[in-house]
Amino acid sequence: MKAIFTLILLLLINCSFYAQVKIGDNPSLIDLNSILELESIDKALVISRMSDTQMLAIQPLKGALVYNTTENCVFVYDGTLWKSLCNNGTGTGTDTGTSIKVTTSNAAPTDNGLADFWINPDLNNSTSIWDGSNWIALDNNPIKGNGTPETNVTNSIAGDLYIDSTTGDIYTYDGSNWIPAKTQLTADNGLTMDTTNNIQLGGVLIKPTIIETSAAFTLGITGLEDGDLTTDAIVTVNPITGLLKKVTTTSLLREEVTPITAIDGQVQFTPNIVITDEKKVNVYRNGVRIDFTVVNSTTIEIEPEATCYSGDKIRIVQFY
Hints:
This protein is mainly β and 320 residues long. Helices cover 8% and strands 32% of the residues. The protein contains three helices and 25 strands. The protein has helices at residues 2-18, 52-56, 149-152, and strands spanning 21-24, 36-39, 49-50, 65-68, 73-77, 82-84, 102-104, 117-120, 126-130, 135-137, 143-145, 161-164, 170-173, 178-181, 191-193, 199-201, 233-237, 244-248, 255-261, 268-269, 281-285, 288-290, 292-296, 299-302, 313-319. Strands 3-4-5-6 form a four-stranded mixed sheet. Strands 7-8-9-10 form a four-stranded mixed sheet, with no helix packed on it. Strand 23 (292-296) and strand 24 form a beta hairpin. The chain is rod-shaped.
C-alpha cells in the first residue's frame, strides 16, 4: 500500500512539473502548446451531460461546456448565458431562450422558439421565422414552389405572387383564388399580335362584336381616302340593332318609270309603285314635264292645263 501511494505521489509531482497531460494513444507525444491532449482512434471524449433545466441551474466558469440532453447539442457558457453550438441549419429541440435555432426540413418544425428559422428545401429553400405563434415567410413575395400554389401555399393575402419552379407558370392571388397569369399572350377577335408581342387592331372577328358609344364618348375615323361612287360600297347602320352593312352606290338612288297612253280628257293616273314622297316624283306629258298633285298613295292628278288628248304619252318617274 505504501508503494502504491509513493507511485501516485511521483506521478502527481511529474504532472505538476511539466504542466502537460497526454491521455490515450502515444502518451509520450504531446504538443508544446497543449496542457491536455486526448488521442484515440476508438474512444471518445464525453463531457458533462445534463438536461436543459439542470444546465440552466448552474453558473460555471466562462467557457464551460456541457452536452444538453434536452437540446441534443453542446452548449458553451459565455459568463452570462448558455449558447448553443448547433446553429448550423440542422439543429432540433426546444429553444431555451438563449439561442436561435435554424431547422432545415420539408415539414414545419413544431418545437419552436421565438426568432427560430425554418428552411424548406422542398420550396427552393424558402426561409421562414417563428414569431411566437406562426411561421412568417421572409421571401413570401413572390413565393416559389414545385407545383401549383393551391398545394404549397397557405395564409395568402390578395396581391401575393407565386412561381411554379417546375413549369415557370406565374400565379396571382385575388383574395379568394390563385389566378394563373399567361406567359404566352394571344390576340384574336379583331386583334393581332406581332413577333414582339405588340397587340394591334386588325384581324378576323370570331364572334359578334359591339362598340358602344354615347353622346360624350363617340367614335370617329380619320384619314380615310376619297371614295368612288361608281365602284365603292356605302356603309349603312341599322337604326334598331346598330349593325353595320354595306350597299352599292347604285342602290342608293333608283328610279321607277311608269309609261301610260292617255285617253281623251284623262287627268288622273296610277303609277306602278306606291307614292311615298311627291318630291321624288316627276310627271312628263309627251316629253314635257308638267305639274301634278298627289291624290293618294296610288294616284296622281295632272294640272288642268295639261288635260290629255287620246294617245298622249304620260311618263311617271319616281325615285327611291
